[in-house]
Amino acid sequence: MYETARKVYETWGIDTEKALEKCGTVPISLHCWQGDDVMGFEKNSTGASGGIQTTGNYPGRARNKDELMADLEFAYSLIPGKKRLNLHAIYAISDVPVERDALMPQHFDPWLEWARGRGIGLDFNPTLFSHPLAADGLTLSHPDRLIRDYWIRHIKACRKIAAYIGEKQGSPCLNDIWIPDGLKNPPADRLSPRIRLRDALDEIFSVKYDKNHIVDAVESKVFGIGLESYTVGSSEFYLSYAATRGINVLLDNGHYHPTEIVSDKIPAMLAFFDKVPLHVTRAVRWDSDHVVLFEDEIKEIAKEIIRNKAEERVLIGLDYFDASINRIAAWVTGTRNMQKALLNALLMPHDEFKILQDAGNFSKLLVMQEEIKTLPFGAVWEEYLAREKVPVEWFSPVEQYEKNVLENR
Ligand code: RNT
Ligand code: ZN
Prior knowledge:
Elements lengths: L1 H10 L4 H8 L4 E4 L33 H12 L6 E6 L20 H8 L4 E5 L19 H25 L3 E5 L4 E2 L8 H14 L8 E6 L10 E2 L3 H11 L2 E5 L9 H9 L5 E5 L15 H12 L6 E5 L8 H20 L3 H9 L3 H10 L5 H11 L7 H10 L5
Parallel strand pairs: 1-2, 1-10, 2-3, 4-6, 6-8, 8-9, 9-10
Antiparallel strand pairs: 5-7
Helix pairs in contact: 2-10, 3-10, 5-6, 8-9, 9-10
L-rhamnitol (RNT) binds next to loops.
């Protein structure tokens, strides 16, 4: 089937061999928090709060580092291509409880060791939710100086950890700052919290690190659960902040109004920013964090990365948490779908399409863009899986793992 497909693509001037080779080199950062419903390893953790929520109660959640590492290991064995791992600060490994503003690089040494042996790069996130000092939905923009200071210290600690990880692993570690800050009901003052956030960030970024070790990013959103009327860290706020401070904006495709599309934001950002980190998710009517599927917007996002040759500038990470299905199936299918979208984008004659656009030949462009949708993509995808030595049919092993491992938890 692959040989036939290769010939079909050849008539379109597309080299499937090149596409297969390239696809395996584009890293995707898996979010560790899909494995345990964003619980983390802190004692007495009750799960995600701060405008986000995991729904579902599927059995088998990873309850500690050994279970999470084992589940990740198994998931990775079913996913082709180059993988990274995205950690949150609440996944620190320590025998004694550590306050978040006292976290240190050594608390992530076991993760570094785990990742190094598997050729996996790490990314990082400060955790400014699921904590008593974030209970009223305000952190860096809190009117109370002491609470702001606590979170400033936390993020400073996290940047130090991320820079340490980046240096140790020899590839920059993304440090993505997302805060829940917002209000449920109409605000009396929309500006002061933003000034406080701006100043807190300035204090955080007054510490300088080597850009080869850390990529600093801020992540905006529209609203969170229970914080529907106002979000301090809005898109305009962070875009302006990042542009004036020389850092980056992370685009989470669940964090915009439903008719806004991140695929269009990527090239807009590429015109100005060196790096464009992503949280790829599936937003069902709102920021619902559903598993990524092989659907139109994911395909468009992948096209913007591939046709702009931005594989090294767009940092692909995933961000969803579905506890209603087998969590490993959620990881594997979401990551595979992102890879499918990349391979799909690699199998398109982008240069020819650009020529048609510039020549004003919109009839031919439209027709070609539609014709290409029914080329034998599936055969090339299966060849990719075979070369990456991962199974085409991967659900039976997941069922086995559920029976042998997850059901015993
Ligand atoms: C929340 C943001 C944020 C979190 C993770 C757990 O709306 O998307 O990225 O999902 O940090
Ligand atoms: Zn996100």
